[in-house]
Amino acid sequence: WTMQQPAPSSRPVWVTILGIIFLVMGVMAALGGLVLAAGGAALGGAALSGAVAGGLFAPLGAAVGGALVVFAFFLLLFAAVHIIGGVGLLRGRRWARILALVLLWIAGISSLFGFLGSLGAGQFGPALLNLIILGVYALFLWKFYTDPVRAYFKGSPATPPAPPAALA
After folding, report:
1. What is the residue-wise DSSP string for 4-54?
2. Which of 130, 78, 81, 91 is nearest to 4 (CA)?
3. CA-based nearest residue to 87, from 43, 22, 12, 140
4. What is the Cα–Cα distance from 24 to 162, expressed in whole angstroms?
């Protein structure tokens, strides 16, 4: 098993921008997830110990605390995917380009639905915001399908090459 070959040194600016955005999103989500996990655990523990209203709301407090911890788990998973993806983009890994494209398509489709829903509800401020966000996703998608970005990621194999056969 050999190490992956490094990508060419001329990283397109769009890859750098999206890599940094992924890292920032990941770090922010990780911090939020840690705060939610700590708060949920504290709330659940306080509720179950009877410290909140003499235990009157213990089941509700424990349920809300547990829900916060579960939500924190998914937020930390989101954070890990974005941090790993951001590092992979900056290092020119092919799998990171694929991950970025999948995440951009999902987010773009989500913004399209948000735009259409806001427009249908007559909420023009949120509709405009969703349209701007949709445009940003569309720009990144377009740039990630261009030849310079594709060429940058061709220098990095998606999977490590097979080890050479042992000589007998």
Report:
1. PPPPPS---HHHHHHHHHHHHHHHHHHHHHHHHHHHHHHHHHHHHHT-SGG
2. 91
3. 22
4. 35
8 A C-beta contact, residue 138 and residue 95: no
To which H or E segment does residue 94 belong?
Answer: helix 94-120
Q: How far apart are CA 123 and CA 110, in angstroms?
A: 17
Q: How far apart are CA 23 and CA 83, in angstroms?
A: 5
Angle between helices 94-120 and 124-144 (to 10 degrees): 160
Cβ 47 vs Cβ 57: under 8 Å: yes
Burial (CB < 10 A; 0-12, 13-18, 19+), residue 131, is middle
Query: ∠ at Cα 117 (78, 21), nearest 5°?
Result: 30
Taking the C-alpha atoms of 46, 73, 31 and 94 in order, what is their torsion angle to the nearest 10 degrees? 170
Of residues 2 and 130, which shows the higher confidence score? 130
User: Coil, strand, or helix at residue 78?
Assistant: helix
pLDDT one-digit tens code per residue, 103-123:
999 999 999 999 999 988 988
Global pTM value? 0.76
